[in-house]
Design goal:
elongated, homodimer, Arc Repressor Mutant, subunit A, DNA-binding, alpha+beta, 103 residues, three-stranded antiparallel sheet
Amino acid sequence: MNDLATELKALADPVRLSILEFLLDPVQTCCASDEGVCACDFETILGLSQPTVSHHMKLLVQAGFVRARKRGRWVYYDLNREAFGALQKVLSRFASLPVLERG
Amino acid sequence: MNDLATELKALADPVRLSILEFLLDPVQTCCASDEGVCACDFETILGLSQPTVSHHMKLLVQAGFVRARKRGRWVYYDLNREAFGALQKVLSRFASLPVLERG
DNA sequence: CAAACTCATTGACATATTTATATCTGTCTA
DNA sequence: TAGACAGATATAAATATGTCAATGAGTTTG
């Protein structure tokens, strides 16, 4: 299937958008660290079961929008901002405004 | 449901991405006019039935990415570039690069 | 007005997606 | 090493989505 469609599908879900919003501005949670937000925190934040959270995180990581780092028993997540920049650039073909280039 | 998720969902489909690609750079087709691309042309371009095309166009129009104009029996479509610009701006919150502002 | 034409809607069906329960894997610690 | 713990995977159910055949609605034209 189209690669771009897969990426967009990863974003096109209210739960996953909530996850991204939280990663954008994480409030202090029980397992938080400077590594990122712990997987277990999303269960309480989203009110969803552990496997459901795991499923959504997997999609976001596979699409490249989120990075996962395993530390012992825990997995910490944070945003991969470059992926969003790349998507913006793809969309710029359709938009009237170009994306600002660095440098 | 989340409004942004609905918009992204409208983009997150290979067929609809093909439609947008074609609207970005329309080659001459049987019913084309300066009004845009005729609905009937997409059937041959996409190899899909007329109701299926109608369904996809409806989603794209509802999400705001495409404009539809009825002229007699025909409906002509074209891109709504402002909608893509708005989406870029939403994504800029997550991206490392901001969207270039006009003016 | 009737027939033809373009597109929209309805109904049906197959596939995909979201979610949870149960279970498995890997890691830590007592 | 045994038990507890964090997260992944398998399975299953409910819902959503993509597709087409049939039909409906509005427009043009003979």
